[in-house]
Amino acid sequence: MDFEEEHLKDVWMVIFEFLGDDDKINFANASPIWHAWVEKRVHTLLLAKVAPLLRDRVPFETLMGLRQVGSKFAISIDSALARHPANLWLEFESAAKENWRQLKVQTMLRSRDDIYRFLREMETSTRNPFPSSRLCIEYEEGWEFINNALNLYLIQDGFWKACQRLLVPFGHHLCHLELKYVFGRSFYHCYAASLLRALQQVPNLESLVLQGNVYETLRDVTGYYCNNSLPRLQNLESVKIQGMGKIVTESILRYCCVPEKVTRLAISRYDCSSLLEEVYEFCNLQVLEAAVSMTSLERLSSLDNLPPLREYHGGIGLGWGWIPPYDPEMFRRLQPFSSTLYKIRISGRFVAGSLSRGEYGSGLLFPNLKTLSFEAYQGFLDILVQFSQLERLEFDEVNGMGAEGDSVYLDTHRVSKSNIWTLFPHLKSIVLASGTYYRKEKDDMLCDIVTE
């Protein structure tokens, strides 16, 4: 059956809408007639392809200038910034390079005046309210004038009303939200309601940061969240909760998170003792920062559906409760993650004692472990030699690292003379309080260590 040209165009345009971006460009290049049909749309598609390349390769100031070229440029660049994986990275991750921190472009609001000023600007503006879909609300208003809990409540009550006026019309634009110090030290019923209303306005959230100094959570908060469930955030992948107490932390993990979706989790609480039950359901967890007891660590590593843990940051420095110092047995508990672990960071005190490699055994295999970091290391280094693929060792504080003549030693005053460089053939750098020391290879010989 023959169709007139305009009818053919209508049919092909319907098909065109179902194609992926790459296929749409191929469609345009397949025929001069087809190219004429979709020429304007192809320009938009090419911008979407070019924007990530610009984001990755041009200076940040230039990138911001390109947003002024036109609305289509601004939309494409904003989308590229919002969708970059760096938005989900936690600060301690190996991937979180310094040059990506500046690409986390975000709107920062610190007071009611900031919020209302922003709202007035939006009344006459047609621009994207959040260029990279990021918003940080960090409460700094009037802390020095607050003498009692009543004044704190009154001030923050007004602040939360301003937050609601902001999030109701604009919350759906957000993919990344940070709420810092927007709660009092006692988490009252009013804060539970405010947090609920805020999260109800951000259905597209991919990363969430909650940070506070909550020392006390009233029991009726638990009942409130049972009767007024927090929203399930289907796209939530990265969660960081610091100093919010068990009830709030537990409620966020239980109600807001889709267990299979979460890949990054950082939690610390004043009432820290063990991992919360909800964490054991996060079967795709790649990055974990938490104060984990040996019992919790053993349970996590014994799960039938073992998460592909790539980076682990644990220890007493992440919680305010007391946890015994870590010892070499911790590595045994992490052994089931050996095929995926890339970095281990231990906060608090790690006590290696006087165990030698032979005494402890040589059964630890972490073929992909590249970075091992300690806040406070005490004891000999013999057992660490088993991690033969290490490229970076970090010690914030050291005590008893051996001496010349020992099987393994690190002289913090003469780093270049330490035999650790020979025993760790892949080691590229050692980070100490005195600086960072690098292996410098020349003619296959170990040369002087360069320090910065």
Which terms would index this structure?
36% helix; LRR_dom_sf; 452 residues; 15-stranded mixed beta sheet; Leucine-rich repeat, LRR (right-handed beta-alpha superhelix); two-stranded parallel ribbon
Description:
Residues 142-147, 317-323, 355-361 and 443-448 have low confidence and may be disordered. Helix 2 (21-30) crosses helix 3, helix 8 (149-170) packs parallel to helix 9 (189-200) and helix 9 packs parallel to helix 10. It is globular and about 80 Å long. The strands form three sheets. The protein has a 15-stranded mixed β-sheet that branches. The chain has a two-stranded parallel ribbon with strand order 4-6. With 452 residues, the chain is α/β, with parallel strands linked by helices. Strand 17 and strand 18 (445-446) form a beta hairpin. It folds into three domains: 5-75, no CATH class; 94-310, Alpha-Beta Horseshoe (Leucine-rich repeat, LRR (right-handed beta-alpha superhelix)); 325-452. Helices cover 36% and strands 18% of the residues. The longest helix is centred in the first third of the chain and has 26 residues, at 32-57. It has helices at residues 5-17, 21-30, 32-57, 60-66, 71-83, 98-101, 112-123, 149-170, 189-200, 220-227, 245-256, 294-301, 329-334, 357-360, 420-423, and strands spanning 107-109, 134-138, 176-180, 186-187, 207-211, 216-217, 238-242, 264-268, 287-290, 311-315, 343-353, 371-379, 392-395, 398-399, 429-432, 435-438, 441-442, 445-446, 450-451. The protein has 15 helices and 19 strands.
